[in-house]
Amino acid sequence: MNNAELREKLKTHIINAVSESMEMFFVDAEHMGEYLDYSEGIDWINMDALYAEILIFFPFSGELRLIMPRQLVVTMAENVYSMEEEPSEQILDDLIAETLNVIAGRLLASMLPPSERFKFGLPELGEDSFLETDAFSEAVDFDAEGIPLWVVACGEGFLEYV
Q1: N or C: which end of the chain has fewer CB within 10 A?
Q2: 120 by DSSP, 3-state: which?
Q3: How far apart are CA 114 and CA 155, in angstroms?
Q4: Would you say 91 and 99 are in contact if contact means Cβ atoms under 8 Å apart?
Q5: d(CA 27, CA 115)
Q6: Terminal-to-terminal C-alpha distance of the chain
Q7: What is the average per-residue pLDDT within 111-136?
Q8: Residue 29 forms beta bridges with which residues?
Q9: For residue range 12-44, what is the model confidence (pLDDT) as tens digits?
Q10: Cα(9)–Cα(158) distance, rounded to whole angstroms?
Q11: What is the DSSP string of 111-139?
């Protein structure tokens, strides 16, 4: 397979993993279809977004990132916890971390043969550094209840194992 075909296959795995994972939180997430680069055209200064990333250690080195506007994470918390008041920062942090954890597990399980084991770290929260890297990355955009979210796979290993 050529590079473009590998990228498209990876994108399909990401789309399936995100769609299935978001169902757990009673949120429909659909791939936008038309690529919306999260580094362009979005007013990030005024958008209150949450970021999580998880390192993949085995069978390849890589990183998976999740970027979600705060309002989407609040909606997920309200869906899961039947909350009437605004969820705390701790609940929002835990929820985006767990969402990424589930997405990473589903993604790797779908990419690798059933007998292949994988290992990844704990999700970390913080600022997005995607724009500062020259490493391979594939960003996939989604519409979740009318709100955009992005999953970014970083590292050549994603193409080697897809």
Answers
A1: N
A2: strand
A3: 22
A4: no
A5: 31
A6: 10
A7: 80
A8: 144
A9: 999 999 999 999 989 999 988 765 555 555 554
A10: 10
A11: HS-TT---EE---EES---GGG--S-EEE
Angle of CA points 35, 36, 41, to nearest 5°: 150
Q: What secondary structure letter does DSSP report for 87?
A: P
SS3 139: strand
Token pair of 143 as six digits: 């519409």
Q: Do the bridges between strand 62-69 and strand 49-58 make them parallel or antiparallel, or are there none, so unpaired?
A: antiparallel
Pairwise pLDDT comparison (115 vs 132), residue with the higher score: 115
User: Could you give phi then psi for residue 131, rounded to 5 degrees?
Assistant: -70, -10
Helix/strand/coil percentages in the chain, nearest 5: 40, 25, 35
The residue behind tokens 């995607």 is 130
Q: What is the chain's length? A: 162
For residues 136 and 18, what is the distance between their CA atoms, to the nearest angstrom?
A: 20
Output the furthest CA–CA distance in the chain (Å, rounded).
51
Distance of CA 78 to the CA centre of its chain: 20
